[in-house]
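Notes to self after the Tuesday call (sharing in case useful).
The group wants a holo model before anyone commits to mutagenesis around the pocket. I volunteered. Ligand is oxa(dethia)-CoA. Logging inputs and output together so the record is complete.
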Amino acid sequence: MSNAAGKIIGVGRALGSRVVTNHDLAEVLDTDEAWVVERTGIKERHFADDDEDCATLAASASKAALAHAGIQADTIDLIVCATSTAPESMPSVACLVGEAIGAAGVGAFDVSAACTGYAYAASVAHSMLKSGAARRVLLIGADAMTRVVDQKDRSTAVIFADGAGAVVLDGGSGESGFVDHILGADGRMAPLGRAGHPGTENKLYQNGREVFKFAARIFPEMVEKLLARNNVSPEEVQYVIPHQANARIIHAAMRKMEVPEGSVVVNLDRFGNTSAGSIPISYPDIFGSFEPGRYVVTVGFGFGLTWAANLYRI
Ligand code: UT7
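Result:
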């Protein structure tokens, strides 16, 4: 098979500098360790310091990914960043990353699809590589959710966190790379979750129960559909990397999927829900064990509502 494009040659992540435990939050909110762990699976998360934001985290993750790939920034010819928490409406985070890493002059834009952003942006990056419009893409997922969450709202303050992940994608065709994507959105469900821009009083709201039910249904459906239409058997899947929203969503989906035990990546206990950051943040822990010829499925879902999944051949 040689229809893949965008082999991952470097991965990196950056998290907010401040580690915040459930105990820390219980000191300022009417919550407790047992509720947060039982209902979400989160034990601690990282919050950005005052001098950090979505763009600085994205830039740090990008520098780490370039160093890991062992390449210079001037070999990148496109920067695509998934985010919904850019520090300002303009410029895009991708432009700020280009400046920070020394890749000015190349194409750079953001993709907005809330927690599904990385899975959407991966499909865009793949298309650009496949068409020949780009040869090496820096693909980023980054969010500073503390900038849009009301830290006095216990139902959301314990969940969302700050972080970014970046990958370097190389080449327009080859054995390894993205193969296929599912993208979906239904704006009729927009009232289930929304948030204003950073710095405004319009803080994040979600109907947690309804988003939960939707996510637990769409996640395994997408995995099954993506594998079936590409004739990939569940045993060929080495990793499923889901958006890290809630451990109960992930476990409910795992019960419905036939992928090998232990293939589903869970790290929200350490990082919480970093929205578009949550999938690419996962790569540094697993990239070194990638087995050529097997597959990685990445699965996003979130406000919009939006949903998307990507099939990647290692
Ligand atoms: O990433 C973007 C997409 N978002 C998602 O995928 C989120 C999906 N939803 C969820 O993860 C869950 O719905 C939540 C974790 C947000 C909430 O869990 P839940 O089991 O659905 O709780 P709930 O909202 O139904 O609230 C149950 C109770 C309520 O108390 P009463 O009304 O039963 O007395 C809440 O007030 O839990 C209470 N509660 C809390 N208690 C202690 C809510 N937040 C907290 C808290 N600590 N932090």
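Two things stood out.
The two ends are 12 Å apart (CA to CA).
The chain has a mean pLDDT of 97.
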